Each structure stands twice: as structure tokens, then as C-alpha cells.
Amino acid sequence: MTTGPGGGNAATYPQAFLRIGTFDPHLEFTVGAPSFDRSSVGASLVDGWSDSNVGAKYELGYTSKAVWGVGTVVSFPTGDIPFTAGRTQYSGDFNWTYTLNSTWSLAGTVSANALSAFTAPGRVASYFAWVPSLVVSAALPQSSSFFAEYAYYSRAAPNLGAKSLIDGGYIHDLGPNLQLDVEYGDSPTPLAGQTQHYVGAGLSVLY
Predict the structure, then answer these.
(1) What gap in Å lies between CA 24 and CA 58, rounded to an integer?
(2) How many whole angstroms separate alpha carbon 29 and alpha carbon 132?
(3) pLDDT computed for residue 12 by the predictor
(4) Residue 178 forms beta bridges with which residues?
């Protein structure tokens, strides 16, 4: 949901995401299939498909309490206007996680992103953004967990400044191969007089 002048609601589904392991236990590939989007932001109702992406992750090292690695994602402009970035986008990141005790853990990411978006005149413009984030999570009884995250975007769009994102969620294992999660996020930084809020839910099949 986007509040402020020209605000409205947007829905994205199913946001399918596939992780593919390899013969190397430290390496995996990812595929992000296009999602169907519907938006009323800007006082008009539009719908269409989003961009697709592929990626890879590699675990560089680990100890009894920590794991760290790198990843990359390439997004292709396969979506419909206005749900495409208009150009190929590139992201590279460094990830880490650290177990504090049997309940609490910390994780973080620093990513460098070469992005693009349509400007008001309808032209595609490229921009660069650093996105560091920090996540705290807690293991709960009955195969459940909670997480809270803060992320900072050094640039939100070609002609906009920085923004922050705060989100949190709940994850519950429904069985050995099925996982449910719900999430709420808020971006309190006003951009062009607007702020953003979102809710989401997901179902993961693990093999």
C-alpha cells in the first residue's frame, strides 16, 4: 500500500522462487519466475507480469557459530509496462549469519545494485544503490521462528533519495518439507510525499 498523493494498493502473486542445489554443497542457483502484478497506484488500475531473474550463491566459509558467503542476481526486462525495470539489472552481495545462543541469531547483507526504472516522462534511467541490512531472529517453540529486519537503500529511484525499510515476520514449519511464513513491512521515509507499507505470506516446499 502506498499512502500520500497518487497513492493506492498493489498486489503481487505468486512470487515463485526456485532454489537449485549442485554437486558442490556450497553452491546453489536460484530462479525467480515472473509474478502477476495489479496496482491502483496513481489513481488507475493496471495489471501485468513482472521481470524474471536468475542468481547464484556460494558459501565461502563457516565456523560452529557463523556462516558467510556471496551471491549475485541478474534481472531481465521481461515484464509488462509498468512492472518492468526496462533494462537488465545486476546485484552482488556479501552475506553473513552468526548464532548468539540457542534462541537468538544475527544476520546481515551488504549489496551493490545496478538498477533501472522508468521516470515520469516515460524514459528508462539507470541508477546505483548500496543496500546494507541487519536481521535479528529468534527460534520459538513448535518449529517456529520470528525475525525483524532493517534495510537502508542509498537510493530509492533514479530521481529520489535514500529510504529505509523495517519489516518483521513469523515462520512455522508445517512438516519436514513444508514451511509457512507471514510478513509485514513499512518504509517510513517519505518519497515524493508518499510512504509504503506491505503485507505478505508465503509457502515453501523444501527438498
Answers:
(1) 9
(2) 22
(3) 85
(4) 175, 205
10-residue mean pLDDT series, the chain (207 residues): 69 84 95 90 82 97 96 96 93 98 97 92 91 97 94 92 95 91 92 85 84
Give residue 93's pLDDT: 98
Distance CA(138)–CA(106), nearest Å, equals 9
What Rg, from alpha-carbon coordinates, does the chain have? 18
Task: Tell me the C-alpha distance between 114 and 158, whole Å.
Answer: 11
State the pTM of this model.
Answer: 0.87
Report d(CA 17, CA 32) in Å as an integer.
Answer: 5
Give the C-alpha separation, 168 to 145, whole Å: 11
**CA pseudo-torsion sign 185, 207, 59, 136:** positive
Fold of 52-205: Porin (2.40.160)
CA distance 186 to 205: 27
- Is residue 88 within 8 A of residue 76, CB to CB? The reply is yes
| Spatial distance between the Cα atoms of 171 and 204, rounded to a whole number of angstroms | 10
The one-letter amino acid code at 170 reads: Y
What beta strand segments (E) does 45-88 contain? 46-49, 52-62, 66-76
